[in-house]
Amino acid sequence: MHPLIGELIGTFFLLLLGTGVVANVLLNKTKASQQTQWVLITCAWGLAVFVGVYVSAPSSGAHINPAVTLGLAMAGKFSWSLVPGYFLAQLLGAMIGSWVAYLVYIDHYRITHNEEVIRSSFFTAPAIRKFSNNFFSEFIGTFVLVLGVLFIAGPSLNISDVKVTNFGLGSIDALPVALLVWVIGMGLGGTTGYAINPARDLGPRLIYQLIPRKNKNADWKYSWIPILGPLSGGVIGSLTYLAITG
Questions:
Q1: Angle formed by the axes of helices 198-210 and 66-74, nearest 10°
Q2: Number of H helices and number of E strands within the chain?
């Protein structure tokens, strides 16, 4: 990559995320302005990514996100033959994880009657409901994630008995990726709650649809945005990586 392109991309990230943090904290009706817990939420999600990446890196390359899997495949860094299986495993993992979390807190769910709060513990929702802007927010957040992961990602991964050109994250990359997810949440997550991961949103949304609660509303009219927004951002992020690295 040409040094000037490197400076352009680096300064782009700096200003996008840095200015985004200020906007998220100071502007009206963002997630950060509505919830003083936003720092805790974004920090915890970053650490959750750290754990997920660290434990799965040696065996799978630690994509843990269909948008990352698609982006790596588009960049020629991951075998297309493995993509469907990864998508399915990621969705099932998200469903099981959210269901077990529900069981841990089941008594608290039973005495919580604000259904908006209940939904927010499962899946994302926009602070201001405007689908075009909501889509762009998920798109750009995942664009930053996938482009960042492609620069961070370490060694190739070998899967036994599978002929594969595979690019995954090593365990040593867990912390940088966690920090990337954290800063995306702080800087860009104030509009939609930053799914930036189709499995992370769809899996828990399906579990919410299945649990026994009155007055449920899984908001399926919105659900396509945290699926297609991240997938589109992942594709463009990978194409951008290819364009600037040659």
A1: 150
A2: 11, 0
**Alpha carbon of residue 233 to chain centroid:** 11
Are 196 and 230 a contacting pair, CB within 8 Å?
Answer: yes
Give the C-alpha separation, 190 to 188, whole Å.
6
DSSP-derived secondary structure letter, 23: H
For tokens 């702080």, the residue is 186
For residue 15, give the amino acid letter.
Answer: L
Give the position of tokens 């754990």: 51
Report pLDDT digits (tens) over 74-113: 888 888 999 999 999 999 999 999 999 999 999 999 999 9
Q: What are the start-end ranges of the H helices in the chain?
A: 3-26, 31-34, 38-60, 66-74, 83-104, 106-111, 115-120, 131-152, 174-188, 198-210, 225-245
CA distance 38 to 82: 35
Its pTM stands at: 0.90
Contact in structure between 79 and 165 (CB atoms under 8 Å): yes
List own/partner pairs for 35-42 with CB under 8 A and 24 or more apart. Answer: 38/186, 38/189, 38/190, 39/186, 41/185, 42/182, 42/185, 42/186, 42/189
Total Cβ atoms within 10 A of residue 141: 29
